[in-house]
Design brief:
Low-confidence stretches: none
Structural class: alpha/beta
Number of strands: 13
Radius of gyration: 20 Å
Mean pLDDT: 89
CATH class of the largest domain: Alpha Beta
Largest sheet: 7 strands, parallel
Number of domains: 2
Order of helices and strands: EHEHEHEHEHEEHEHEHEHEHEHEHHH
């Protein structure tokens, strides 16, 4: 039986690839990931919950990384870095896959480098406009690099870089997804992604009464920082619904119905907003690697489909004023968003799955 290892910190494109590859009966897939959300947080990660739903073997990697804020957890994380290399090396030595497929993140480089030492071929996919450190290092050792945005090609060797777009889960692209019930109120979707954003969560908690003209759909995330889940449970307001993780089927219905989206500017969120032609307010994460989230957000801003708000300016009244301004210009912004959507490819999952099959057969 053929074997591959999938690894990396970006869950949704990895899921999209796995959905395509699980159709192959003679292929065994291993996923190297994190069982828990972050250091010091015992909440089960979205990747562990979701990957466990597939016919995939999940291997928990004790991954370390250089964090942007000094704390006891940052020091513990640094100590873990050598452990992730040793663990990846021996797991790969035991599994002996025919290929490693990376989606960036702190787990990916130890896996890619260990595979290189063992003579195992690898490929990587970059979702963001500006690649993170791990994928820049991966680019030195992989056989092929696939990117979502043309701008990303500038960071990798041109001769082994291919533009394919980002990978999107099949259920996000199908019309059979569950749709929300129609309502007289427009839908305001506020999301911090799979892990969540305590900053955006706090905005909701402090301003929920002022948002009563909308049906508010709020993705809090799985991290549950400072008991955000408990705060959400305490809100009793008609039209307010919260989730930790949102399944692709539910997310498709939310995207179909969302009037305005407020979110961070992670690579996968920005791609999905662009792909589905959504009008958005983006609050890039402070100090993201290489200003990654700022560069992601600028794609939508330059397309006139989103407004970027710096976190230091994203106070309650400021965001409420921006929502009101967008409402006045909504028709124009929506047309711009839909025009951008028409330029984006939707077959990246199939392209990467075909590349995987070709390498395994070679």
């Amino acid at each position: 039986m053929r074997k591959i290892v999938v690894c990396g910190g970006h869950l949704t494109p990895a899921q999209a690839l796995i959905e395509n590859l699980t159709k192959e009966k003679d292929l065994k897939i291993y996923f190297f990931g994190r069982r828990y959300v972050t250091e010091g947080n015992k909440n089960i990660s979205a990747e562990y919950k979701q990957i466990s739903n597939y016919n995939v073997v999940f291997k928990n990697i004790i991954a370390g990384r250089f964090q942007r804020h000094l704390s006891k957890y940052a020091l513990i994380s640094i100590v873990k870095i050598p452990v992730s290399f040793i663990q990846s090396f021996f797991l790969l030595l035991f599994i002996r896959p025919g290929l490693i497929v990376s989606f960036g993140g702190s787990i990916s480089f130890p896996t890619i480098f260990s595979g290189w030492l063992l003579g195992i071929p690898s490929i990587t996919h970059e979702q963001a406009v500006v690649p993170g450190l791990s994928n820049r290092l991966n680019g030195l050792f992989v056989e092929k690099i696939y990117v979502s945005w043309e701008e990303s090609s500038n960071y990798f060797p041109r001769e082994k870089t291919t533009l394919i777009g980002n990978l999107v889960r099949h259920s996000l692209l199908t019309s059979s997804a569950k749709k929300l019930k129609p309502s007289a109120k427009n839908v305001l979707f506020i999301t911090g992604g799979n892990q969540g954003s305590h900053f955006l969560n706090t905005f909701v908690f402090e301003n929920i009464k002022k948002l009563d003209s909308f049906n508010v759909i709020h993705q809090i995330g799985t991290a549950n920082f400072k008991s955000d889940h408990d705060k959400a449970k305490a809100i009793y307001q008609n039209g307010y619904v919260w989730y930790d993780y949102i399944s692709p089927e539910t997310l498709k219905g939310i995207f179909d119905s969302a009037h305005i989206t407020i979110s961070r500017a992670g690579a996968n969120t920005v791609w999905e907003l662009a792909l589905f032609g959504k009008v958005a307010i983006l609050v890039p994460l402070l100090h993201s690697a290489g200003s990654e989230q700022q560069k992601n957000a600028e794609i939508l801003k330059n397309a006139d489909s989103a407004v970027i708000v710096e976190q230091s300016d994203a106070k309650g009244e400021k965001l409420l004023d921006i929502i009101a301004t967008i409402e006045k210009n909504y028709t124009s912004m929506q047309k711009s968003a839909q025009a951008l959507a028409k330029t984006l490819p939707r077959d990246a999952s199939e392209i990467l799955a075909s590349a995987v099959q070709a390498i395994l057969k070679s």
